């Protein structure tokens, strides 16, 4: 089995944050260095073995979308190729090439900006109980995976641990102010709508996605990752059928396997068998090929 990059160690760079997948390092007072590893999590638990090439897929998909959204909003990318990184990173080229970005430091906005075009996931669960999502009233009679008449902005808290929690728009106003809340909603729906149309031409539905924003000299800026299988649900148009869950281009293979086990979804997590790892790797590669071809 291919050795997978589970964690990175760069002793001459300051580690700022180690997430479930991405590690963030500080280069200086202006720039950060982000590397997407091959780690994979399920049910908020990082698994012992990773998915080969996953980090590169996530990075290349993000770069693809960041470039296409520049007409809507600037992003934090400074460089995406090692040759354009600070010289002290060049010795790590074999590890970081293709899976890392040099980015502008920004002041992160403490809200996850989720846009939903279809009724699925936690949105479907909430709809069944109240016919609403984040305080937005939806029509009666919708079924799982229904397409919504218009995409909706359904923000969440930014949780360091565990699941993010859906919050109403008024709560976003309380966190960032009305002007910024309205700007976040407008830009999020613009980016989602453009991505939905571009992906649709390639046979892919973007059911929902989440964005992160920061302020760069008070200018709203797209940060983190963008429209990847880890931040979005991608479905095949030809296989789409409302009234049931859909097959996603993401780690659903891993989740489905883990649900067959007698595991309490707490640490320590079980090791994934080679077959599941290989199928998941192929799934990530497939969505990269479809979106960026």
Largest sheet entry: 6 strands, antiparallel
Q: Based on helices, strands and strand pairing, what is the structural class?
A: alpha+beta
Count of helix runs: 7
CATH superfamily of the largest domain: ATP-grasp fold, B domain
| Oligomeric state of shown chains | single chain
Number of strands: 15
> Judging by the overall fold, what is the CATH architecture of the largest domain?
2-Layer Sandwich
Overall body shape: globular
Radius of gyration: 19 Å
Give the SSE string. Answer: EEEEEHEHEEEHEEEHHEEEHH
CATH structural class of the largest domain? Alpha Beta
Given as residue ranges, the uncertain stretches (5+ residues, pLDDT < 50) are: none
The separation of the N and C termini measures: 28 Å
- How much β-strand is present in the residues? 15-25%
Q: How many discrete structural domains?
A: 2
- The portion of residues assigned to helices is 25-40%
Mean of all residue-level pLDDT scores:
94
Might you state the CATH topology name of the largest domain?
A: D-amino Acid Aminotransferase, Chain A, domain 1
How would you characterize the overall build of this protein?
The protein has 7 helices and 15 strands. It is α+β, with helices and mostly antiparallel strands. It folds into 2 domains: 10-105, Phosphorylase Kinase, domain 1 (2-Layer Sandwich); 108-236, ATP-grasp fold, B domain (D-amino Acid Aminotransferase, Chain A, domain 1, 2-Layer Sandwich), CATH 3.30.470. Strands 8, 9, 12, 13, 14 and 15 form a 6-stranded antiparallel β-sheet that branches. Strands 1-2-3-7-6 form a 5-stranded antiparallel β-sheet. Strands 4-5 form a two-stranded antiparallel ribbon. The mean pLDDT is 94.
């Amino acid at each position: 089995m291919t050795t997978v990059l589970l964690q990175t160690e760069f002793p001459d760079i300051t580690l700022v944050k180690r997430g479930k997948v991405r590690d963030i390092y500080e280069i200086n007072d202006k720039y950060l260095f982000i590397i997407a590893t091959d780690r994979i999590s399920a049910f908020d638990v990082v698994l012992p073995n990773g998915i080969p090439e996953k980090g590169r897929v996530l990075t290349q998909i993000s770069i693809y979308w960041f470039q296409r959204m520049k007409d809507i909003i600037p992003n934090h990318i400074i460089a995406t190729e090692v040759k354009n990184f600070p010289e002290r990173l060049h010795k790590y080229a074999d590890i970081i090439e293709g899976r890392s970005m040099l980015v502008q430091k920004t002041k992160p906005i403490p809200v996850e900006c989720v846009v939903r075009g279809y009724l699925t996931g936690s949105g479907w669960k909430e709809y069944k109980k109240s016919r609403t999502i984040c305080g937005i009233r939806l029509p009666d009679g919708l079924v799982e995976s229904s397409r919504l008449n218009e995409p909706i902005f359904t923000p969440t808290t930014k949780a360091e641990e565990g699941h993010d929690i859906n919050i109403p728009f008024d709560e976003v106003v309380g966190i960032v102010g009305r002007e910024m809340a309205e700007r976040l909603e407008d830009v999020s729906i613009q980016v989602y709508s453009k991505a939905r149309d571009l992906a649709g031409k390639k046979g892919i539905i973007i059911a929902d996605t989440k964005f992160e924003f920061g302020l760069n000299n008070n200018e709203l800026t797209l940060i983190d990752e963008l429209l990847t299988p880890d931040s979005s649900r991608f479905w095949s148009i030809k296989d789409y059928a409302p009234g049931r869950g859909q097959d996603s281009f993401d780690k659903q293979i891993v989740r489905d396997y883990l649900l067959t086990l007698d595991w309490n979804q707490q640490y320590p997590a079980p090791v994934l068998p080679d077959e599941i790892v290989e199928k998941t790797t192929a799934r990530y590669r497939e969505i990269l090929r479809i979106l960026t071809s």
